[in-house]
Amino acid sequence: MNPRVNTAAQSVSHSVYSADIIRQYEKAAADQCGDAMYTLMERAGFSAFKHLSQTFGHAHRMTVVCGSGNNGGDGYVVARLALQQGWQVTVVTLPDAQPSTEDASSARDAYLAQGGQISVFDSSELPSADVLVDGLLGTGLKGDVRNEHRDLINAINASPMPVVSLDVPSGLNADTGMPLGCAVEALMTVTFIAAKGGLLTGQGRQYAGRVCVEALGVGEAFAKLAPKTDWVWRGLSDFAPLAARPQSAHKGVFGRLLCIGGNRGMAGAVRLSGEAALRCGAGLVKVHCHAGSVLQVANGRPELMVASEGLASALSWASCIVLGPGLGKDSWARDVFNQVLSFVIHADVPLLIDADGLNVLSEHLHKLKCTNLVMTPHPAEAARLLGTSTSAVESDRFAAVQGLAERYQGVSVLKGSGTLVSASDGIMICRDGNPGMATAGMGDVLSGVIGGLMAQGMRAGDAARYGVCLHAAAGDLAAESGGQRGMLASDMFNPLRVLLNQ
């Protein structure tokens, strides 16, 4: 039972590259296709204008902020196309911001020949329009944003106009998603050639807004020329549906999941994990919890088998173990943790560790002898596991998730906006999900989703990737029906079932 990626839906837009790799190979790709770099600039402007026209169908006034590099050249192309369509257009530049490349100069001249005008930014408000296009700084920015650019970026962010950024929001590190002193907050970013990781996770997702990838007609050539990447950007729609269940199926063939946690006063966490696993098709789910939590876990969900004793026999029974939701860190929790770890060292049983299970793990071990291990930390838990700070984890989420996978020799899931999954075959960035999912218990549901899939025979890496996308898409479906604010973790159960059966 391993999910298949829908290869028909895959393209270079699903592959993630560093900004340096894109800069190194985009010209060679253009040359191979017989295209001049100015042709790519024209296509970039055209694709950006197409996306913003579709998004802002009412718009007829545009302010375009252009820098001196090729990012500004893209902006001049957008401005010219808008003029040709009868829009009112104002281009804003910094004083003495002459184009620094031949292509950018050609794009500016074509805009002026169309009757366009250029205004100089004087630290006041930007000209009012229906939409603002950010073509100030591209991916080549090194070091913090200079003062004159900072003032213009602050003016963009202070403006009520919706912002469309070209290639990357000005001031944002395209690889890490961290602002270089400051960065434009865009509603949408149209990025070129291929996806850049910094736009897709953590803070970068906030700055970039909705990301549209345009390969500019050279995507296939670029993918062949550039070094092979094992980083991908996926959502649930990129996976083919799971295979139909056989008519002769019975509950015994769909796995036996053991969820361990639920210390006194924390019954809800392990209950959410257990029910999520059931909703994802696990045949049998047992919960081992503190004696003081048995009634709370079992109440209202008779399909769960709940006990506070007999852990050794439950471990031997399980085809997968989820350890940590609501576990706590007291003596009961540590005794349970040690018993589980002693068991999995000698038994080849898939193990998922979450929540307090990760916090206890961070105090003791740096490697587990477990062939099918998944860890699902949020940034603070990841920081404890890596012996660093939460801010350090968030400043380079890719390095953090990869470091976790390497240190603990397992699959690492770094939760948050644009959740990351690092396995032996690369890193996946989840495209789905929304801010309404930032609520108590969502991580416990994710543990149950992935654990339930592993219990049914899915390999650890496959279960983590598919489970993360399934969980995020369920959150989007729940938000569509009831809105983001006020979403509960338990609101995920019905959407999970719906999505799994599509």
TrEMBL record:
Positions that bind K(+): 71, 134, 170
Range of residues in the leader sequence: none
SUPFAM superfamilies registered for this protein in UniProt: Ribokinase-like, YjeF N-terminal domain-like
Binding site for (6S)-NADPHX: 70-74, 138-144, 167, 269, 326, 378, 444
PROSITE patterns cross-referenced by the UniProt entry: YJEF_C_2, YJEF_C_3, YJEF_N
Keyword ATP-binding set for record: yes
Domain YjeF C-terminal, first and last residues per copy: 234-502
Binding site for AMP: 415-419, 443
Cofactor list: Mg(2+); K(+)
Keyword list, A-Z: ATP-binding, Isomerase, Lyase, Metal-binding, Multifunctional enzyme, NAD, NADP, Nucleotide-binding, Potassium
Cross-referenced Pfam families: Carb_kinase (PF01256), YjeF_N (PF03853)
Gene3D superfamilies, per database record: 3.40.1190.20, YjeF N-terminal domain
Domain YjeF N-terminal, chain residue ranges per copy: 22-224
UniProt cofactor note: Binds 1 potassium ion per subunit.
Superkingdom assignment: Bacteria
Metal-binding listed as a keyword: yes
EC numbers, comma separated: 4.2.1.136, 5.1.99.6
Function: Bifunctional enzyme that catalyzes the epimerization of the S- and R-forms of NAD(P)HX and the dehydration of the S-form of NAD(P)HX at the expense of ADP, which is converted to AMP. This allows the repair of both epimers of NAD(P)HX, a damaged form of NAD(P)H that is a result of enzymatic or heat-dependent hydration.
Family membership: Belongs to the NnrE/AIBP family.
Protein name: Bifunctional NAD(P)H-hydrate repair enzyme
